[in-house]
Write a structure and sequence with these properties.
Blueprint (H helix, E strand, L loop, with lengths): L6 E5 L6 H11 L4 E5 L2 H11 L3 E5 L7 H10 L8 E5 L5 H9 L4 E4 L4 H36 L4 H8 L13 H17 L6 H4 L4 H4 L2 H15 L3 E5 L4 E5 L3 H7 L3 H12 L11 E4 L5 E9 L2 E13 L6 H11 L3 H10 L2 E2 L1 H56 L1 E7 L4 E4 L1 H7 L10 H7 L2 H16 L4 E9 L6 E12 L5 E10 L1 H29 L3 H15 L4 E7 L7 E7 L5 H4 L13 H8 L3 E3 L12 H6 L4 E9 L2 E10 L7 H65 L4 H16 L4 E6 L4 E4 L2 H6 L3 H6 L3 H4 L6 H7 L2 H4 L5 E8 L5 E12 L5 E10 L1 H23 L5 E4 L2 E5 L1 H7 L22
Parallel strand pairs: 1-2, 1-3, 3-4, 4-5, 10-11
Antiparallel strand pairs: 6-7, 6-10, 8-9, 9-10, 12-13, 12-16, 14-15, 15-16, 17-18, 17-21, 19-20, 20-21, 22-23, 22-26, 24-25, 25-26, 27-28
């Protein structure tokens, strides 16, 4: 068997890398004949012609269903015993594997095939195949013996020449068949006893799980043709596993009817209990027919019995009366039952003795063969356990090294043999099949700038007789060209004379740590830039100065090559105007055209960020198609990547800050978050500076407007006073001066109609006596609307201000004061909100009785907006002043009127009041002059 060539058949799919798999198998099993076909039909032909030891069958075939092919191979007499390993897809589910098992598959391998798993599976299948061949050899020898005996002229001669059985069941004369079986048993025991003992598990097996029922059935059929004696194998529970020559009296009556069938089972189990190994027991069954049984003992376990039965001796008469009573008792049709009884076999005791001798040998053969099968199965199982344990141990070590990114190596200085673990191959990006591990080959992988240092560390440690060395260096992966950092440690092993004969060590991939260190360094720099830019916001007064400071900080404090800030223009081209920059080379911005419109020049990162209001990044200017318009100029200056953040005021994007790097894919996630925060602070700073300037301008405008308003109010008030005085005098003249009164009224109307404010008179029932045309400009309603609907005066008032207006308008209160002033809101006819400055005076007759009211309304909406803007600006200014780190104070006549928190913290007055102190008190005496 050792000289026999192993044959492996690969039935593969044309689309799969079968050639490489074939080459791998040839490498793993040198000397084996590896056959390959690319279709199922070719596989059937080759399997029949070559009879391979193992078949590897792909799940997908071009010309037929692989499951059907597996089933056909297993059904064929020539290929049925050949182990089949299914090559399954990695995503193949439970149902696919179950179907393969149902079709006869012996094992599975997932694609892509793992080398170690492939080796173990093929070895296991070859072991099983060899065991099956041995088993078939034994069965062939047994079959040959039977055939030799069945070709003899008489049955008696066969068994008188073969074996005679003594009273205690031992062999007195060993024939050729007995010698073979006993020799085979001893051979099996000697070869397998060192592996394991079967007793521990045989008790858990059923006889049906152990014997090859089909093969035994064939042997028994040959025996029945010769002896015409019914034979069966029945387990200890009464189940018939193999049966030949069963008579109608048994199949149609005794085992068909429940009560008589129970008799059969009881006879098969109870009456055969305790028969010694190697002996027969002759007995009448519970249904009054003769049976002979010998036990089947496997590994000292009684698993069943080999029966001859359902016969009568030809030397004894049949008790027909007994069987007729039996038919009546069990309900058999009497005539049919008695007819079947007549057909039951009658044999002589001499023939029975010869049959017992042959079947005794058969029983022993079954026991021995089954025992051998169990031992072989246990041996295979034990071997698989050992292989699995070894493989698991190797996998765990390999996985642990892979997780830790730490490989091990050993260098034999005598043979110059370098051995690497799998992890070192992974770290170095090498394929073990393509790279021979040598010290010189190892040096080739090291970065050229580090190669001399590594070689020197090793050579000097050997030359100086050191215990080892430690060095950190770089390598260049062969498969990807990736640069990696590794930490290498070595210890030298010396012989008895102190000479170094072997070096062992480890290589630890510390690239991730180096990358993290570099990330941390970059983040610290970006964080510092963020802090400095925040300080610049509080220190800058002018917007342009602030923008240039931020650009300078980003370039100087980080590794970025260039920064620029641009504002979106609302011109036809939707251009972007650069307003500040740092780190530029050769007038880059003057050579490029950038837009935020949806055009070719607007699809770059800056235009996209402004157009969408979201961060945009170009990780590789060389490869990004959207960067095509600016690629040449950018690459000429060494720029490789950029990230752009929009600058927003509320929901409106007004510009962007663009940051350039000289390395592709160099922007870290955390770094982007910090830069995004910097961009937000920048936008806030721009808005703050603009509000600060607007606040200053608004204060100046408000002061000017306030002065002008005071002058105007005084002028209008004087005019009204003069008009009122004239009107009062005319009213007191009497009815005889009514004409003069009308004239005065017309004069007043003329003044009121041409006054900027809205003038009106109400009588004591709140009806309009007069309403100036200015009401339409202020409220959107005409004077006639108020004259026709006096309630309109209240309907246009904002719901939140209606109560205070009604309180103000109460007649009782109006009568107690001469002037009443109020500010409230109205709802303009167009739906907008307007602020009204309201003044009114009660009108009394000569006796002092209340007659109505004169009112004057002014539109003060603009003034209110300016006041709110000033209030908001003051709040933001005070909030900024309270939270910045620089001290701020307001001093009048040398005395502090206001100081912020930072000022108190700087001078140590956090718990004391500084307001009211003289500024000179804060300086040292030497500086107080």
């Amino acid at each position: 068997m050792k000289d026999r060539i192993i044959k492996i058949l690969l039935i593969n799919n044309q689309g799969d890398p079968g050639i490489s798999l074939k080459a791998l198998i040839e490498k793993l099993f040198p000397g084996a004949m590896v056959l390959m076909t690319l279709s199922g039909n070719q596989g059937i032909v080759v399997a029949a012609a070559e009879t391979p030891d193992v078949i590897l069958l792909d799940q997908h075939l071009p010309d037929m269903d692989s499951y059907d092919l597996c089933q056909n191979l297993k059904a064929d007499s020539k290929s049925g015993n050949i182990p089949v390993i299914f090559l399954m897809d990695a995503k193949a589910g439970k149902e696919a594997r179950k179907r393969a098992l149902q079709c006869g598959a012996d094992a599975f391998l997932a694609k892509p095939v793992d080398e170690s798993e492939l080796t173990l599976q093929i070895r296991a299948m070859i072991t099983i195949r060899m065991a099956q061949n041995k088993k078939q050899g034994i069965k062939a020898r047994m079959q040959g013996l039977v055939e030799e005996q069945t070709n003899e002229p008489s049955y008696a001669e066969i068994y008188t020449q073969s074996i005679s059985i003594s009273a205690n069941g031992e062999n007195e004369d060993r024939s050729t068949s007995a010698d073979f079986l006993n020799d085979r048993e001893e051979e099996v025991r000697v070869n397998l006893q060192q592996i394991s003992s079967p007793e521990g598990s045989i008790a858990d097996l059923e006889l049906r799980d152990i014997i090859d029922a089909t093969s035994i059935q064939n042997l028994m059929e040959n025996f029945y043709k010769l002896a015409q004696i019914p034979v069966a194998i029945i387990d200890t529970k009464g189940e018939v596993l193999v049966g030949v020559g069963w008579q109608d009296i048994c199949t149609k009556f005794h085992r068909k009817y429940p009560e008589s069938c129970n008799n059969c089972i009881e006879s098969d189990t109870n009456l055969t209990y305790g028969i010694p190994d190697g002996e027969f027991k002759l007995y009448k069954c519970r249904n009054n027919m003769w049976d002979v049984a010998t036990p089947i003992i496997i590994g000292n376990e009684h698993k069943g019995n080999l029966f001859m039965g359902q016969f009568f001796f030809d030397s004894e008469p049949k008790d027909e009366q007994l069987f007729r009573k039996q038919a009546d008792r069990y309900g058999f049709p009497p005539d049919e039952y008695m007819s079947a009884l007549e057909r039951a076999p009658h044999i002589s005791r001499q023939k029975l003795d010869h049959a017992k001798a042959f079947l005794l040998n058969l029983s022993r053969s079954i026991s021995q063969l089954s025992f051998s099968n169990i031992l072989l199965a246990k041996a295979n199982t034990q071997q698989k356990k050992i292989e699995n344990a070894l493989r698991e141990s190797e996998e765990l070590l390999n996985k642990a090294q892979e997780i830790a990114h730490l490989g091990s190596w050993s260098l034999d200085l005598i043979t110059n043999t370098l051995t690497w673990s799998d992890e070192i191959y992974r770290i170095f990006g090498l394929n073990p099949q393509e790279f021979t591990a040598t010290y010189e080959g190892f040096l080739e992988v090291i970065h050229p700038d580090d190669r001399e240092a590594v070689n020197s560390a090793y050579v000097h440690s050997i030359r100086d007789g050191k215990d080892g060395y430690r060095i950190e260096h770089r390598i260049i992966c062969k498969d990807t060209g990736e640069l990696r950092h590794v930490l290498e440690k070595c210890e030298h092993i010396k012989d008895e004379s102190g000479k170094i004969v072997r070096s062992v060590g480890m290589v630890h991939d510390v690239t991730a740590s180096k990358v993290e260190e570099e990330k941390l360094r970059k983040l610290n720099k970006t964080l510092a830039a963020l802090s400095k830019s925040s300080q610049a916001m509080s220190q800058s007064q002018e917007e342009l100065d602030y923008l240039n400071q931020v650009c300078k900080i980003v370039v100087e404090d980080t590794d970025f090559a260039m920064v620029w800030i641009g504002y979106a223009q609302n011109d036809k081209a939707k251009s972007i105007l650069p307003v500040a920059s740092a780190g530029f080379e050769d007038d880059y911005l003057e050579t490029v055209k950038i837009s935020w419109g949806d055009t070719e020049h607007g699809h770059g990162p800056t235009g996209t960020a402004i157009r969408t209001g979201k961060m945009c990044m170009c990780n590789n200017m060389f490869a990004d198609p959207d960067f095509e318009p600016w690629r040449e100029q950018a690459l000429k200056r060494g720029y490789a990547a950029s990230v752009v953040f929009p600058l927003k005021a509320g929901n409106r994007t007004f510009g962007a800050i663009s940051i350039y790097s000289k390395e592709p894919d160099s922007f870290l996630k955390d770094e982007i978050n910090l830069l995004s925060e910097l961009a937000s602070d920048l936008a806030h700073g721009i808005t703050t500076i603009r509000l600060r300037n607007a606040h200053q301008k608004a204060e100046e405008a408000l002061s000017k407007s306030h002065n002008e308003l005071e002058i105007l109010v005084k002028e209008r008030t004087r005019e009204l006073q003069v008009a009122n005085e004239l009107l009062q005098k005319e009213i007191n003249i009497g009815k005889q001066q009514e004409l003069n009164l009308k004239l005065a009224e017309e004069k007043y109307r003329t003044v009121a109609d041409h006054t900027h404010g809205w003038e009106f008179w109400l009588d004591k029932e709140e009806n309009f006596l007069y309403c100036s045309p200015s009401c339409e400009r202020i409220t959107g309603y005409k004077a006639t609307d108020f004259l026709q609907n006096p309630e309109l005066l209240y309907e246009i008032i904002h719901p939140d201000d209606l109560k205070i207006f009604r309180t103000h308008r109460r007649t009782k209160e109006l009568g107690q004061v001469k002037e009443n002033e109020l500010e409230y809101r109205i709802i303009h006819a167009d739906g907008s909100i307007r602020w009204i400055g309201h003044e009114c005076q009660p009108i009394n007759d000569e006796s002092g009785a209340y007659k109505g009211v004169r009112g004057s309304n002014k539109d003060i909406t603009r003034r209110k907006e300016v006041e709110q803007l000033l209030k908001t600006s003051n709040q933001k200014y005070r909030l900024l002043s309270a939270n910045i780190n620089d001290g701020i104070f307001i001093c009048k006549n040398g005395r502090l009127e206001y100081v912020n928190k930072a000022m108190k913290r700087i001078f140590g007055y956090s718990k004391f009041k500084m307001e009211g102190l003289m500024l000179s008190q804060l300086a040292l005496p030497d500086y107080q002059e």
